[in-house]
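Quick question: what would this complex look like in 3D?
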Amino acid sequence: MEKKKDPIRKPIQKRSIEKKKKIIDTTFKLIEEKGYYSVSTPEIAKVAGVSTGIIYSYFEDKHDILIAGVKDYMEQLFSTILDIPDDTKITPKELPERFDKIMKKFINSHKHLKQAHSKIMELVYSDPKVDEIYKELEMKLSDKIVSLLLKNGFNRTNINERVHVSIGLVNSLLYENTYHKHEKLNYTRMFDYTTELILTLFKA
Amino acid sequence: MEKKKDPIRKPIQKRSIEKKKKIIDTTFKLIEEKGYYSVSTPEIAKVAGVSTGIIYSYFEDKHDILIAGVKDYMEQLFSTILDIPDDTKITPKELPERFDKIMKKFINSHKHLKQAHSKIMELVYSDPKVDEIYKELEMKLSDKIVSLLLKNGFNRTNINERVHVSIGLVNSLLYENTYHKHEKLNYTRMFDYTTELILTLFKA
Amino acid sequence: MEKKKDPIRKPIQKRSIEKKKKIIDTTFKLIEEKGYYSVSTPEIAKVAGVSTGIIYSYFEDKHDILIAGVKDYMEQLFSTILDIPDDTKITPKELPERFDKIMKKFINSHKHLKQAHSKIMELVYSDPKVDEIYKELEMKLSDKIVSLLLKNGFNRTNINERVHVSIGLVNSLLYENTYHKHEKLNYTRMFDYTTELILTLFKA
Amino acid sequence: MEKKKDPIRKPIQKRSIEKKKKIIDTTFKLIEEKGYYSVSTPEIAKVAGVSTGIIYSYFEDKHDILIAGVKDYMEQLFSTILDIPDDTKITPKELPERFDKIMKKFINSHKHLKQAHSKIMELVYSDPKVDEIYKELEMKLSDKIVSLLLKNGFNRTNINERVHVSIGLVNSLLYENTYHKHEKLNYTRMFDYTTELILTLFKA
DNA sequence: CATGAATGAGAGTTCATTCAT
DNA sequence: TATGAATGAACTCTCATTCAT
């Protein structure tokens, strides 16, 4: 005989929403510290100060908490760029400076989330669902940049590919800078080369 | 009386060496197929055709087998470049063509190991020990390229940083190309932009 | 200070009585469909349209609801016979026909409750309390039949035992017919043999 | 990624066979005492004196142990009749006495397994797989009896149905006698009526 | 050297019951 | 009276590791 599960509860009251948030954040924090496979549901419950049972009222299963956390994190991460108003005006002259600012802000937000980032990347590689979320947001990011460029007259052939190569450059810098630091490298210089190359890609 | 663990045996006889190799290869193959956390030691033993017990004569624990496998794999992966003889001569004229060939070969070897690559990257991000191995090899790769460039007179300021930014570009292309493919992007064009940028970095 | 449990409430108001009835009926319906161990109290509450908490005002525990439902069901089941008026007159001539009618009606009511029957029998075997209820009702049934027979002059030695063997025969037929059907058996013939044997038992 | 389970081990060595038997017997004994749903796997392991893990080497899951136990039990139960040699000769004169002996033996073996019987019947009603086993064995029993009767010249019309009605009568007696005893009934008399009716069914 | 049966801690999950509101 | 969010003990099952043979 089949057992029907209680449907997942959508919290409405303030206390419930906070509790759900608490579970997500705790889970994410623990995953940051120890990795997804080393975090158990009883541990999450204990650290979050809730019972094991309640977790399964708000989430389908352990993996579901992860996804919620990843979504929150990624949205926060990419918001630096996604939140730029669509009607922002940039003159060619301002571009380098503008770009420099954004990149620094972006890299900074990563630094702040350093530990998390590597765990997230682990999941991007190991978890198809996380990969999908990441891919989607990356595309949104790319589309946003393309749109901003076009609106300000920086039209180029193959603009999508140019933007993607640029994003790759930034990611790679980020990766080196936040996670994989080699001692004998000077990251300020790498930053400069990176911006230089990107501007090259969009020079008239 | 305290119990002492049997020390890890270093195989000397040919048969033993082969057995150890078999365990490593089997483990790696299974990890490629299913990921580290989905492979169990009894399964490894069975597929490798050995007893579960013997595994713990050759390796400290499950993780230890992983490390051995990762080392083997990465050395193979980077051999495209690391095996280039130190006294190879390249004239400035040949450089673009030469470079193009190497990149294609590199990307190809990745494509071939596509499945493996994402599983390995997962481990780079999740396992400090794997990360260390990866970092070390990447540095060797970087050093090799710098050395080849210097020997052929392509001296540039901050050459290490330039090489690293280039490696980042290639990695990023690889990632997009093998693992994370977006449908609306033209990867041949991205390849071209990537080589173009790298050559820019080393233009006189 | 010791905590005292709220006593089980006996509903007096109409609305309460209806609510209690609703819980019993829902529980029984769900048990029929899925079996006792596959029905959860939150599910009962939901389907019955009440809160989980209120269930524990009306019933001691989950098992208590079951018992209430079983009682209702069994009374309904045996009513075919128990409701026959005590002063019913049957002549020896009418007996076979009369008996045939009753048996058919009885078997039919079972067929109708087929699914329920097996779930109930499971409980008769597994739950001492249910067994007791069943036993008691079976005895009432037996007494009723004996009384009807005596009032109509069908006195026989060991009449109680004869009636019980008859009841066993009918049960057995029921079981075969409703629950445990073997394909190669002709149940009409079995029905005929059963009635024949019972009449034999009461032949003068 | 899918995980492949270790296949269920078929014990070959004496010690393993005994261990498997021990698990089956312990499980069955515990089910007799408390019912299937009230027995836990750790409990089985503890009482059987094995580890929880080993259970899952020999059995697919908890239900699988149950099935093994039920099979053992039922074969033992029906062996009284199934083990009668096919070439047994019975003259019409001997039949009543012969039959009486077998029935007494059968009822006795039930009495001996009294507690078990009710738990098994519970499972016949609740577990489709157990029901199937029971049905199959009942059919074997029926076929055996038919075959014995035919070989000894007791041919009758609708012999299968006659035999089945007889089996029903015996079951019903058994049930009353071992499990569901009513105090005011004389079971010796019921036994006599039962045999009488069965003999009636096969009278020339 | 080698085996593989055995271990047992701990995983994710469920659900009868309680209690603050 | 009534609610339903919350509890947490207990469930089935897994698997890295050990050890008697």
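Answer marked as accepted. Chain C has nine helices and no strands.
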